[in-house]
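Supplementary notes for students who missed Thursday's class. We covered one full example, reproduced here. Read the sequence, then the structure, then the short commentary at the end.
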Amino acid sequence: MPGTKKRKPFAAAALGAVVLCAALAGGAGGQSPKPRARDLGVPFDGAPGAWNAITDVAGVEVGMTTLVSGTGRLVAGRGPVRTGVTAVFPRPKAERNQVFAAWSKLNGNGEMTGTAWLEESGFLEGPVLVTNTHSVGVVRDAVIAWQLARLGDKHPTWSLPVVAETWDGDLNDINGFHVKPEHVFRALDGAKSGPVAEGNVGGGTGMIVHGFKGGTGTSSRRVTLGSAAYTVGVLVQANYGVRDQLTIAGVPVGREIPDLLPEVGGDDAGSIIAVVATDAPLLPHQLRRMAERVTLGIGRTGGLGGNGSGDIFVAFSTANAAAAEGAGLVEVEMLPNEWINPLFAATVQATEEAVVNAMVAAETMEGVDGHVVHAIPHDRLRAVLRKYGRLAN
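Structure (token representation):
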């Protein structure tokens, strides 16, 4: 998100060389032994899938590249670097990724490319990528280059990629343009199913949530409609909110933990990008309604969609795999609107948990000019939940 978070002038001191850290091990971006929100006893509604991740939707793959290097004073073009890129494929990356999709927003002080054609056509025609505000252009161009290089005749000769952003300039040398095409290729090539890394990884590396360290988070829900079972998965890049509004499991955690505030930020000028996936057979107008429900999950955590916030969401369905193929008549399936409420609820629940998972997984980070953003303290979070009778274990 651009806007009011651009506070620090460029410094003139020298820094060391940039070091690349790739978050690709252990499935879709790397599974860490660190606990998730449920492990700490945070109670959530709904039943998650096996990985409690967007990759519980069959075929979805996630890859990340994380860039962390340098300390000390900001030197534009040299660091410190705290950024990265995240890639989400609706179907395995070796296949042509055309799926019914739609997008929505809460507050639009942000960017998601490709939405005009997505809305016009009803199709998402490739992966969704998320990075920092000033790297959207290079990531977009790199996606096209990757598709042409890797997919050959499975890819059309033109493309309008969907690339979104949140602002990491409070911790990262955002005007140094450290995300390069090779980093995008690495995230795309490394995309996998399975557990998904969270916290200070991928595009979420330098992000802040409600005055605590934020970043990448994910969650999923299983839903039974009639005789069929479906999955809804959400991945967020969370970078929004102020401390006193932070709510976890209905508990005013931000008011109970008012200290450990960062030296930067402080107003509701961050952003959140959400990618919603489902295997339920929904058409684009129904997927737009799903994307709109992301706002309720954000609201559960205390997000208000402030004027400086870029809250933009995309939702897709992996069903109706042949809908974009051929030039003749195509038969598609769709759920009736009367069945859609459980999918709405799943989207709200998974969004809320994905945000909290991002916070729980994040670690304290020092960035440009020595600015420190603290991770939410797990012991104090558990104590607050216990105080309000909301600790699950």
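Commentary. The first strand starts at residue 20 and ends at 21. The chain has one domain: 44-384. If anything here is unclear, bring it to office hours.
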